[in-house]
Amino acid sequence: MSEQELMKRLSLNQITTEQWNLKEAVEGSLRHDIEWISVWRHKIEEIGLKASKRLIQDSGLKVSSVCRGGMFPAPTAKERAERIDDNKRAIEEASELGTDTLVLVCGPSPDRDLCAARKWVEEGIDQLVPFAKDHGVKLAIEPLHPMFVADRSVINTLEQATTMAQNHAADEVGVIVDVYHVFWDPNLYHEIKRAEGRILGFHVSDWKVPMADMFKGRAMMGDGVIEINRMRKAVEEAGYHGPIEVEIINQALWDQNGDDVLKQVTSSFKKHV
Amino acid sequence: MSEQELMKRLSLNQITTEQWNLKEAVEGSLRHDIEWISVWRHKIEEIGLKASKRLIQDSGLKVSSVCRGGMFPAPTAKERAERIDDNKRAIEEASELGTDTLVLVCGPSPDRDLCAARKWVEEGIDQLVPFAKDHGVKLAIEPLHPMFVADRSVINTLEQATTMAQNHAADEVGVIVDVYHVFWDPNLYHEIKRAEGRILGFHVSDWKVPMADMFKGRAMMGDGVIEINRMRKAVEEAGYHGPIEVEIINQALWDQNGDDVLKQVTSSFKKHV
């Protein structure tokens, strides 16, 4: 793929510029010739769905995904039902913003029983699929790094996510491959291959040693140890040729000027993705 | 199993009382009716192997393991050969101290290529097996949590460790199940079962949210989210009935009086293991 073709796939995952609101992120993306954006729900909420939709439509930016649905496990049936309702709103937002991909961060367990929590995730997805389908939205299960099992998601390997996705049709439920979450996996390339036809997104950042912060410590591509380029080629061989989201959760980047961040993003993307 | 039988299996992994030298750890264990100890090599080095051996023999304590061999991957053949030599010394130390178990922390990759590093681990173990066998020592591969892939070990799941162990006879190479490193694994109970006859040690601590420190943030049993008791029963069903090492790497514990730490260790062990 030419450098130009690659750069046309870059999508700004909005959490990378957490210091910006949606308007700033949209305008920043245009200034840096970025064609795609992934929109976070807390940013939509700040200005409302209608204004968000108008902003994006006027900009000509394409939306690669909405982040995020999920968070299924909860101790009571009532709370789990509330989570489903919230996911339905997320599906509506994705549909309104013109993307067919809702990223699912599936949620931690309310107690020590990981098996029960994983069952609730499965049940939650089962319940959502018909609603998502009606709205033209696919559910994209993102396995999170095992270090997040206790506070963010009980879905921790690509194997687990793909197996869960396979309970449904390929145009209903798929997976996100985020290099930061899966690069360590001894079965990684086998599992990427197994996810063929199910990959709904590819996210990039890097893993730098030492890790400053488990949550806000993701690094710019090229600053860490992840074989990003090899993984990009593997997901392409598995049939994914869509937008590539740069999703870097990093306090040091949030403390910088957003335009400086986007300069680093585009330059690192060119070299290391 | 009666509480008394369970307590007879408690082993003090010496890193839990990093503030103590070997003499203090041995005497502390005796004061708290602990029958087993796992000895770390940097503690042996402080006083020498001969003095360490005498201390332990005089105390009547049994040695559950020596921590640690491993650290196989290195960029040059010369360096990898040096690592093998160091592992041979570790095997001799284990043998001298009267344990048949050397714990392997297999080491990080010197560069981005995890596949190559994992191959070096495999080759390193292949080279060590005859020497270890001659000394009556088994090599115990300890999978480390995936968050340590870049700085401590490229062996990150029980599946991977067991598969690697199966290249050799069951009385030559096995695995360590450490709850902190493997509790997140969606295939955990399946993999414990698959490791039947290969489990050479069971280590306990806990995973507390939020994690204060990736390396020195392990918690006392019962203070976190790990189903320790369920895992203990699973490794027993898979044939392991040996010592259970309490291995808590935690700066806050190291800052306390060692006897206070051992009081917490024995009390938490009784309740939560």
UniProtKB/TrEMBL annotation, chains A, B:
Keyword set, alphabetical order: Isomerase
Top-level division of the source organism's lineage: Bacteria
Lineage, broadest ranks: Bacteria, Bacillati, Bacillota, Bacilli, Bacillales
Protein name according to UniProt: Sugar phosphate isomerase/epimerase
GO molecular function per UniProt: isomerase activity
Domain Xylose isomerase-like TIM barrel, chain residue ranges per copy: 40-257
Gene3D superfamilies: Divalent-metal-dependent TIM barrel enzymes
SUPFAM superfamilies: Xylose isomerase-like (SSF51658)
